[in-house]
Amino acid sequence: MKVLVVGSGGREHALCWAIAASPICDALYCAPGNAGIAAEAECVAIAAEDIDGLVAFARDKDIDFVVVGPEAPLVAGLVDRLSAAGIKAFGPTAAAAALEGSKGFTKDLCAKYDIPTAAYRRFTDLAAARAYIRELGAPIVVKADGLAAGKGVTVARSLDEALAAAEDALSGGRFGEAGAEIVVEDCLEGEEVSVFALCDGSSALMMAAAQDHKAVFDGDKGPNTGGMGAYSPAPVMTEALAAEIEETVIRRTVAAMKAEGRPYTGVLYAGLMITAAGPKLIEYNVRFGDPECQVLMLRLRSDLLPALLAACDGLLDTFDLRWYEETALTVVMASNGYPGSYEKGSEIRGVDTAETDDKVKVFHAGTARRADGALIATGGRVLNVTALGDTVQEAQQRAYAAVDRIDWPGGFCRRDIGWRAVAREK
Asked: Quick check: 359 and 328 in contact, CB under 8 A?
């Protein structure tokens, strides 16, 4: 098969790495890719949001299968356009991608089909939103309705913080159209877990669970980011809990989307809070998590490509996946200043040295090659140093040993990824 992966981050590097290993993949392209992906696939200079360009390229190269990594092209209807051109693609249609494209849509779906989530209200009027926030008090959560590159959610610990978040979105224009409506909801307390399932419109195949770290600094301090590290499996996920989540959240959602005339195919990523009252949905994403995808791909024993094809072909009810028992843990190395402003172009050395351990893989997120061949940072999150171990602590130690072999003064990382799970092991 000729396969095209769309995207340029660590998630897409992990997907390319897994797909390139498949015996049924004859040619692999990635648009636009990055310096690390170039080792697995032929990178093509077409942006992930350039839907016309991607469809034209897929036609020109007789691509058999397209795997869409990021959410923006999914919400914009890339899968619809590819399907109309007769090209098979992994990911939801634009109608189904509303699960991530509109927080309000998802909350309304949960209310209609009894999918457990936090109580909420939707607002386009700032005065009404302020009144509701004052009525509920803090802590409280304010979310921009649309896509905001992972920066549209404020978990407000004070009334002033919540009121400012509502004002930023509704009158300050901070998120543009994405913030023209907001969702205000109760703050869920508990432990977060990321759950993934492949879906084919009717059935769902559960994948391994993971936990990520959103806050930028050690001890879960500082502003939220796209994710500073992750590990899998998640120790909080017992067999009983997994079964409850599959029944009350994932399968209920797949059935609801089918009933709504928006059948969901692709990977469904449920961000959940495990509360005293049981698991509750925080939000849905319509693609693999980043950096969770990196740890899932390192643990996946089965060939990924046939599983993605089975989701497109409606064959998941006869499919299964096998996983390595080992723990995988990834540490995100980010540019100094992230998630605020940061400089681009700093040189990175030692990635090859970091990968001399065969239990370590460095996935590239924001990298490029300079004219002289030097590796440089081009984004906020730049490298995902990923390792396997028999325990979380062993995977953690191996990952940080690899991090320390990388020479990059222009970057930083959290030094405590996996701390909850390590504490449990002790």
From this structure: no
DSSP secondary-structure letter at 187?
P
Q: Are 30 and 44 in contact (CB under 8 A)?
A: yes
Using CA atoms, how far apart are residues 400 and 286, in angstroms rounded to an integer?
30
Strand-pairing partners, residue 195, are: 270
Residues near 189 by beta carbon (within 8 Å), at least 6 away in sequence: 273, 275, 276
Q: With 0-12 CB in 10 A as exposed, 13-18 as middle and 19+ as buried, what is 150? A: middle
Best CA proximity match to 363, nearest among 266, 297, 414: 297
pLDDT of residue 268: 98
Determine contact, residues 165/184, Cβ cutoff 8 Å.
Answer: no
Q: Spell out where 41-94 has E strands.
A: 42-43, 65-68, 88-90
Which SS3 state, helix, strand or coil, does residue 275 take?
strand
Query: What DSSP string runs through 276-339?
Result: TTEEEEEEEESS--TTHHHHHHHHB-S-HHHHHHHHHHT-GGG----B-SSEEEEEEEEETTTT
pTM for this predicted structure: 0.96
Residue 298's φ and ψ, nearest 5 degrees, are -70, -30
The single-letter DSSP state of residue 263 is -
Burial of 251 (0-12, 13-18, 19+ CB in 10 A): middle
Q: Which two tokens stand for residue 159?
A: 């009334």
Q: Is the dihedral of CA 217, 69, 404, 400 positive or negative?
A: positive
Task: Record the tokens describing residue 199, joined without a space.
Answer: 């879906």
Which CATH superfamily, name and number, covers 327-425?
Phosphoribosylglycinamide synthetase, C-terminal domain (3.90.600.10)
Interacting residues of 122 by C-beta distance below 8 A, sequence separation 6+: 104, 107, 108, 145, 181, 182, 183, 184
Give the pLDDT confidence of 327-384 residue by residue, as tens digits. Answer: 999 999 999 999 999 999 999 999 999 999 999 999 999 999 999 999 999 999 999 9
Separation CA 296–CA 324 (nearest Å): 10
Structural domain boundaries of the chain? 2-93, 124-180, 191-318, 327-425
Structure tokens at 339: 């998630």
Is residue 384 within 8 A of residue 417, CB to CB? The reply is no
The continuous run of DSSP H or E covering 120 comes out as strand 120-123
What would the pLDDT profile of 281-298 be if each residue is shown by its tens digit? 999 999 999 999 999 999
Q: 191-318 in CATH: which number?
A: 3.30.470.20
Determine the number of helices (DSSP H) and then strands (DSSP E) in the chain.
15, 24
